[in-house]
Structures are given as structure tokens and as C-alpha cells.
Design goal:
Strand 5, helix 6 and strand 6 form a beta-alpha-beta unit. The chain has ten helices and eight strands. It has an eight-stranded parallel beta barrel, surrounded by four helices. By secondary structure, it is of the alpha/beta class. Helix 3 packs parallel to helix 4 and helix 9 crosses helix 10. The protein starts with a strand and ends in a 22-residue tail after the last helix. Helices cover 33% and strands 16% of the residues.
């Protein structure tokens, strides 16, 4: 199956009726898509009350992609909030485990920063991390091109297969020495992840400083031709993995939701088991926000 979704559910204005409360947006989101990437778990290990609420508000078949906590992937700035790595991983497992038990955990996404390059120390850390998260399906996304340099490409893929890492295939501007190439290959027979970041070369070459870099870098509107290209890639990857998850991360100017819906339209994909959409009182037509 091909699952199409977005990063987060809070900022996709085209999906929601005007004035909808932030706390009600996940339920509304699940009328359109069968999966979502949870970004808040990157910034803080989520408390049980949040997890329980998300599980209550989504259909039985809904799938969450939980981003790994930032300290786990080397993004943490400043001192740790935890007394030890052991405590940190235990708390993360406690947070995510209810999703697995409910059958709603697609995977944990471990996205590494641009300075995490291919070397022995980092390979050893990946083995350590996979061991700490052994009870969960885990996806691996690199941001440093060295992992897929011709010298290491096949070794990286073989390592991921041996360690049971789900491959996060990325679409981003192709800049020599500054981006990860599209590597269309599955590393598990069960799942593959696709993350679409956009193709704004200028934004990646000269990113804005401070907090503005994210707004600039992920500002991109995919064309129909580009969406069809990725639909075909997803269909090919599905021959290697039973399930392919496609996540649109190009939301700086709110393009992610329209692009994802357009891809579904172009591909003819329809999902069963979504949260039912509200129908009109008089003509029984589905409201389309």
C-alpha cells in the first residue's frame, strides 16, 4: 500500500474550516490522509496524555511516523535534559510504545544532521541507536552526501539491510557537495519511506540565517510532472516493500497539503477507513475544505 501524508497536522490551512481549534485539527486531518509525521517528538519526548489523545482521535488504521528525539540523532544544543542516555531511551520507548501496541506506529524516523558524515564512529553509533530502539521499526535518513558517495553507496545500503533500517528516500535540490542524491532502493521488504523536501536550489545554496532558514528551504510547489515522477518511483519501490510512505515536507508556503492531494488525484489512490467527512444537511454532499 502507498500511504500519503504530511509533516505535522497544525499548519495545513487548506484542509480546515476557518476557526477550527488547534486541538481539533488531527481529527480533521485524518479525514484526508492515512498517515502523518510527528515533528513534536523531535523537540521533546511526548507525554502519555498527548499520545493517548492522538490515538483516540484517529481511525484504527491510521499510521504515525514518530520523529526521533533530537538528542538521539545529534541535533541537541546545550546540556541534556536527562541524567543518562539510558534514561533518555527508556523515556522515549515509554512514549512510543502505546502507538506500537495500538497498531498505529508506522516507524520511528531517525533523521541525522548535515554534519553526520560517513565514518567508523558514526557507523558504530548507528548500531548502538538501532539496538536501543530494537523493539520499533526505524527509518534512517541522512543529510550528509558522503553516505551515498559512489565509494560507500552499496556498503551503506547493505549496512541498512543488515541492521534492519527502513530507507528514507529523499527528494531535495541536487547540489554538488551539499545534498543527498535520490537513491531509489528499499532496504526492508516491509516498509520504505519517501520524504519530499522540495527542489528550491537557491534556498539550499544560500539558506536564510537563524530561524528563517526552514521557511525558505522548504518553499516549493511540485508540478504535476514531478508528482507523477514520484508516483512512479513509489510504485516501483512497492515492488520491493509491501508499504511505501510518502511524506510531503514542502510546507513553507502551505504547498504540502495541495501537492499531496493532487498526487492522490493523479494516481487514483483512495483510502478506506479514514475519519468520515461531514456531509451537508440538505444535499448530502461531502464538505471539501
Amino acid at each position: 500500500m502507498i500511504y500519503v501524508g504530511l509533516t505535522g497536522w497544525g499548519d495545513h490551512d487548506s484542509l480546515y474550516p476557518k476557526g477550527l481549534k488547534q486541538t481539533d485539527k488531527l481529527k480533521e486531518y485524518s479525514k484526508y490522509f492515512p498517515t502523518v509525521e510527528v515533528d513534536s517528538s523531535f523537540y521533546a519526548i511526548q507525554p502519555k496524555k498527548n499520545i493517548d489523545k492522538w490515538l483516540r482521535e484517529t481511525p484504527d488504521s491510521f499510521q504515525f511516523i514518530m520523529k526521533a528525539y533530537q538528542e538521539m540523532t545529534g541535533h541537541q544544543r546545550g546540556p541534556s535534559k536527562y541524567e543518562s542516555k539510558k534514561e533518555m531511551f527508556e523515556q522515549y520507548a515509554l512514549s512510543v510504545r502505546p502507538m506500537k501496541e495500538a497498531g498505529k506506529l508506522a516507524m520511528v524516523l531517525c533523521q541525522f544532521p548535515p554534519w553526520f558524515e560517513c565514518n567508523r564512529e558514526n557507523v558504530d553509533y548507528l548500531r548502538y541507536l538501532r539496538d536501543q530502539l530494537h523493539e520499533f521499526p526505524c527509518a534512517l535518513e541522512f543529510r550528509h552526501e558522503s553516505w551515498f558517495h559512489p565509494t560507500f553507496r552499496e556498503k551503506t545500503l547493505e549496512f541498512m539491510k543488515n541492521e534492519d533500517w527502513i530507507h528514507s528516500v529523499v527528494d531535495e535540490p541536487q547540489i554538488e557537495g551539499g545534498s543527498v542524491p535520490i537513491v531509489e532502493e528499499a532496504t526492508t521488504s516491509s516498509k520504505t519511506l519517501i520524504r519530499l523536501h522540495g527542489r528550491d536550489r537557491n534556498a539550499w545554496l544560500k539558506p536564510a540565517r537563524g530561524q528563517e532558514w526552514r521557511k525558505v528551504r522548504y518553499r516549493y510547489n511540485y508540478s504535476d510532472a514531478e508528482l507523477q515522477e514520484w508516483q512512479e518511483r513509489a510504485e516501483r519501490l512497492q515492488k520491493e516493500s509491501s508499504d511505501v510512505y510518502m511524506i510531503f515536507n514542502n510546507n513553507s508556503e502551505r504547498h504540502a497539503a495541495p501537492n499531496a492531494r493532487r498526487l492522490l488525484e493523479l494516481s487514483g489512490i483512495e483510502y478506506e477507513g479514514l475519519t468520515p467527512k461531514q456531509t451537508s444537511l440538505f444535499n448530502d454532499e461531502t464538505r471539501d475544505s
